[in-house]
Write a structure and sequence with these properties.
alpha/beta, 217 residues
C-alpha cells in the first residue's frame, strides 16, 4: 500500500485528486493539508511514502515545503502538483530533490503512474512536461549533449546501462529485473554514478541520461 499525503489549498482540487487516487487499490491518502506549513507537519507525523504538493500554497509554498520535507523526512518521496505553464519552477524543483512533476489537468492514469514511480524510487515527469524539457535538452545552442556525452564516458558500460534506465524512470528493483542483477548491486551502481558525476540525486542523473542520448524508450 502506497501511503500519500495530499497538499493543496483548493479543497475541490484535493477532492478531485483524492478521488482519482482512490481508484487504485494500492494507494491510500492518509492525510490532507491546506497549506505548505501544514504539509510539512503532517509529513513528519504520518511519514507517508509520497507527498503530493501544490506549488502555490499559503504560509509556505510547495517548493519550500518540499525542501523542508526532503531535509527532515528524507524517506518521503516528494512530487509537485502543477498546471501546464508553471514549468519555470521545474528546474528548481528537480535540483531540490523533487522526484516527480505531475499535471493536475493531465490524464488520471498519469497521476497514478507518477505516484507509483516515485514511491518505487524512480522519477516521473508528466509526458507533456517531459516533452518540453527534453526539447530544451536537445537544443543545439545549449551544447548540453556534447558535454553530457563527455561526462558519461567516465562510467563503466554497466553504469551507463543503469543510467539509461534511470533516465527512463525505472526504480532500482525494475532496473535489477531488466539487467538481471540483484537490487543491492543496482543501488551500488546508482551511488557510484552519483558520486562519479557529482550529481545530487537520481533525478539529476535522469536528466543527464536524456542529455547524453542514453534513453531510447
Amino acid at each position: 500500500m502506497i501511503r500519500v499525503l495530499l497538499a493543496d489549498d483548493d479543497e475541490m482540487v484535493r477532492a478531485g485528486v483524492g478521488a482519482i487516487l482512490a481508484t487504485d487499490p494500492g494507494i491510500k491518502v492518509v492525510a490532507e493539508a491546506g497549506d505548505g506549513r501544514e504539509a510539512v507537519e503532517l509529513a513528519l507525523t504520518h511519514r507517508p511514502d509520497v507527498a503530493l504538493l501544490d506549488i502555490r500554497m499559503p504560509r509556505l509554498d510547495g517548493l519550500a515545503a518540499a525542501v523542508e520535507i526532503i531535509r527532515t523526512a528524507p524517506a518521503v518521496a516528494v512530487a509537485i502538483l502543477t498546471t501546464f505553464g508553471e514549468d519555470a519552477y521545474l528546474t528548481r524543483a528537480l535540483d531540490d530533490g523533487v522526484r516527480g512533476f505531475l499535471l493536475k489537468s493531465g490524464n488520471p492514469r498519469e497521476l497514478i503512474a507518477g505516484v507509483h514511480a516515485v514511491a518505487g524510487g524512480g522519477a516521473y515527469l508528466s509526458p507533456r512536461m517531459a516533452a518540453r524539457v527534453i526539447g530544451e535538452l536537445r537544443s543545439p545552442r545549449l551544447g548540453r549533449a556534447v558535454t553530457a556525452r563527455g561526462r558519461v564516458e567516465a562510467l563503466t558500460e554497466r553504469e551507463r546501462d543503469v543510467l539509461a534506465l534511470l533516465g527512463a524512470g525505472l526504480s532500482n528493483a525494475q532496473i535489477a529485473r531488466r539487467l538481471g542483477l540483484v537490487e543491492g548491486t543496482v543501488k551500488g551502481h546508482v551511488s557510484a554514478i552519483l558520486t562519479r558525476l557529482d550529481l545530487r540525486n537520481r533525478v539529476q542523473a535522469a536528466v543527464l541520461a536524456h542529455e547524453a542520448g542514453l534513453v531510447t524508450e
